[in-house]
From TrEMBL:
Protein name (record): NADH dehydrogenase subunit 1
Keywords, sorted A to Z: Membrane, Mitochondrion, Transmembrane, Transmembrane helix
Organism: Papuadytes sp. MB137
Membrane spanning stretches: 7-24
Keyword Transmembrane helix listed: yes
Length: 25
């Protein structure tokens, strides 16, 4: 459960980073 939660958190961070890049461009 903890691993899954950490994986989900990482996915959200990456998704936010991609959104920031798209807005910046």
């Amino acid at each position: 459960m903890l691993f899954y939660k950490d994986l989900l958190f990482s996915f959200i961070c990456i998704l936010l980073l991609l959104i920031c890049v798209l807005i910046g461009v």
